[in-house]
Amino acid sequence: MKKQIFTIGYEIPGYSEDYIDFNSKKSLMDADILLISPDSLYPHYESWINFSSGGGCYDVAASDRYEDKISHLKKEVKDFLRSGKNIFIFLSQKEDYVLASGVSSPRKGQNNYSTYKKNNYDFLPIDIGTLISSSGKHIEFSGNIIFSEFYKKFRDSLEYQLYIEDINNAQVIFTGKDKTKILGSIHKVGRGNIITLPYLNYDKNKFIKEKGDKSYWTDKAINFGNSLVDCFLLIDQRLTQESEKTPPPNWVVQEKFSTKEAIKIKGDIEKNRKKIEEIKDENEKLNKKLADENILKDLLFEQGKPLENAVIKALNILGYEAENYNDGELELDQVILSPEKYRFIGECEGRDNKDINITKFRQLVESLNADFARDEVEEKALGILFGNSERLKEPDKRTLNFTQKCKIGAEREKIALVKTSDLFYIVKYLSENKDEKFKKSCRDSIYNGLGKIVEFPQIPKSKSMKNKMK
User: Fold this and answer.
1) pLDDT by residue (tens digit) across 323-363?
2) Domains annotated on the chain, with CATH
3) Which residue among 114, 204, 429, 464 is the one 20 to 30 A from 88 at the CA level?
């Protein structure tokens, strides 16, 4: 007979009849497996009281009802685990709720009540560690064979909304990049287990179809739900089998009690583990190199500090010395020195769907004057305004750059206007081809472009392209 799964707060496609509302107080003992998503364990449709000093709380009646629901669920969970059953928990965000206790409601203006906090994980009968809300997609799998099918099928849909620190007496299954951030684990409680897992997300809009005034799960959704239930059943079966086995005594690990084949297999496992760690370390290094290499892409769509850093890298490729400047009083996006000994001050600006306007231009002019006022500066620097307008559009679809006021001001102050999307293609070529002559001509274009929008020279065809054309 197939085991019965009940879910609280998480609807498995195709298993809507097994969904239990937090408010129902329905007994869980008819289920063999329980899945809980704590994001559903909040006070429903209750009264909230605002404090004149700020903040607020749920009123006494609402607080009592919530306390009663959480206590009921906690007892049901304890009984469930005591009977040797397993509970799966998708780690959703931790939410704190300010509740009130007392003999009357604060809504009536009386003050004979006090406040306290409960959170949506207070239904747990044990302390599973320090819960910290955080979000991301990078999830490391321990390789535990019991969860291999689950990870294989759903790895692309997993995300984390919470991680756990200071975990005790638990088997770790999933972590973040930092191995101290636990995203999934097994906690033995009585004869049962609490299994925490990263949150499994799905798009309801793609999983549900409308027909008249009714909604239906799509075939894709049903397959998703069946696969998830099958994985839970498999995990439950294997954990139950393990719990029924007698834990091996310490002395049985001695080599004299192992067959030669068992010793060989254990050695192979250790070799593979080392290879996996080496590959992980290598991938960490490659990811860092890839992130550094992709900084140039920020010239196309970024703003703020990421755009500043991308411009500095681009300028370095062009042969300039460039760096941020901040002495506590004066902060400059870039101080730039060319091989030709021209000194520039750069400012960067990214806009979503507008031209780069006169505000950033004025800021650059002020920076140039403030820099010249420093005792150690003997000659006023030249100015470059790096603009990334319509930054979220593909470069060839952009029609905006700098406002007319900006262009007039640039001509008057002899400031170069550089579109960072133009700069990207120049430095991409130079990062792939050693071409000092072209590099020099690009620097000349910037210097000769003082007072207008810089037009870079046409990018030469690369050697590989020339060979293809022959």
Assistant:
1) 998 888 888 989 999 999 999 999 999 999 889 999 999 99
2) 5-246 (no CATH), 295-469 (3.40.1350.10)
3) 204
